[in-house]
């Protein structure tokens, strides 16, 4: 099977020649979407041969002139809607087109889109909840503009050849806020972003955090793969999530311990996750980004392919 065929069969819950896999890490380059970024993504893809290339979007969200950072609730009202195709987003789109051209086969590409809470936290120095509780109207005025900007960006990604987006949802977890606070203030915006990417066929919903609330995000519409850190304490196992979702899951190994674990320990975790999944509608991967080399030994990065060819 080709990579595209394998993934499409996996999404449908059909039998495949092997379990598909993916892995990723941040390149942390300057500039984040220049020539070195394109070359690094292509070199990574050719070396580790994942079934899909999950591109790391490390370019900053573009702020209006004269507003480098949100300092007060009133500052949220000064944000503008970005069109998703110019400025920093435009630089990333240009890089995506070059990466797609360099891949040269049917393997799909998805690009990271940080969710509404993730993006907001970066813009205000992690004071989103403080501002929201102090002045919900002003803060939501800004959140609505961010959500529309991310929706525009998501739609542009799919239109420019991406198979989908990797929506990294943070905040919907016990280590951040109560479930009802997330539901009331952020969930609608995450749905808006997924809706904008509806033209994609490989949209990934990554539920980030410790003590996640899967019952909040599982009902969202427009994604095809549900990803989370199954090895972190307080998060559901693959077996527990399989009872809640028959559709495609993606999990496997502990991303936080990845660089320190032996290959044998990683193999045990990966095979255990595959067994818990039932062997269908499952993509093997880390719970989130693994450490950037050299903190991730190359032997460990090759483990995913070794496991899926052995199972």
**Rounded average pLDDT:** 96
User: How far apart are the first and last residues' alpha carbons, in Å?
Assistant: 16 Å
Count of spatially separate domains: 1
Name of the CATH architecture: Alpha-Beta Barrel
Round the Cα radius of gyration to an integer and report it: 19 Å
How large is the share of residues in beta strands? 5-15%
CATH topology: TIM Barrel
CATH class: Alpha Beta
Number of strands: 7
Structural class: alpha/beta
Poorly predicted spans: none
Global shape: globular
> Largest beta sheet, briefly?
7 strands, parallel
Name the strands of the widest sheet in spatial order: 1-2-3-4-5-6-7
Helix content percent band: 40-55%
- Please report the number of helical segments: 13
Order of helices and strands: HHEHEHHHEHHEHEHEHEHH
Walkthrough of the structure:
By secondary structure, the chain is α/β, with parallel strands linked by helices. The protein has a single domain, classed as TIM Barrel. Helices cover 43% and strands 11% of the residues. It contains 13 helices and seven strands. It has helices at 3-11, 35-48, 87-103, 116-124, 128-134, 136-159, 179-185, 187-196, 214-217, 238-244, 263-277, 298-301, 303-310, and strands at 53-55, 109-114, 164-169, 204-207, 225-228, 248-253, 282-286. The protein has a seven-stranded parallel β-sheet. The longest helix has 24 residues, at 136-159. The radius of gyration is 19 Å and the shape is globular.
């Amino acid at each position: 099977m080709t990579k595209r065929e394998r993934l499409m069969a996996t999404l449908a819950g059909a039998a495949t020649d092997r379990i598909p896999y993916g892995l990723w890490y941040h390149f942390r380059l300057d500039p984040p979407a220049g020539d070195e970024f394109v070359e690094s993504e292509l070199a990574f893809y050719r070396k580790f041969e994942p079934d899909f290339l999950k591109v790391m979007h490390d370019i900053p969200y573009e702020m209006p002139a004269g507003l480098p950072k949100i300092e007060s609730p009133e500052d949220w009202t000064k944000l503008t809607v970005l069109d998703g195709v110019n400025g920093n987003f435009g630089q990333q789109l240009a890089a995506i087109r070059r990466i797609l051209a360099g891949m040269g086969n049917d393997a799909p590409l998805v690009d990271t889109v940080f969710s509404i809470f993730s993006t907001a936290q970066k813009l205000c120095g992690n004071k989103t909840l403080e501002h929201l509780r102090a002045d919900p109207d002003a803060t939501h005025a800004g959140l609505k503009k961010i959500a529309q900007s991310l929706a525009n960006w998501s739609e542009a990604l799919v239109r420019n050849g991406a198979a989908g987006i990797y929506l990294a949802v943070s905040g919907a977890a016990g280590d951040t806020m109560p479930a009802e606070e997330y539901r009331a203030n952020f969930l609608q915006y995450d749905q808006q972003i997924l809706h904008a990417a509806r033209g994609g066929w490989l949209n990934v919903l990554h539920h980030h955090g410790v003590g996640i609330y899967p019952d909040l995000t599982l009902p969202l519409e427009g994604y095809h793969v549900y990803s989370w850190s199954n090895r972190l304490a307080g998060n559901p196992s693959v077996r527990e999530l399989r009872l809640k979702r028959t559709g495609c899951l993606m999990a496997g190994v502990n991303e936080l311990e990845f660089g320190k674990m032996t290959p044998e320990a990683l193999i045990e975790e990966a095979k255990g996750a595959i067994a818990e999944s039932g062997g269908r509608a499952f993509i093997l991967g880390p719970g989130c980004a693994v450490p950037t080399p050299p903190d991730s030994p190359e032997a460990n990065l090759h483990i995913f392919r070794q496991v899926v060819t052995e199972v």
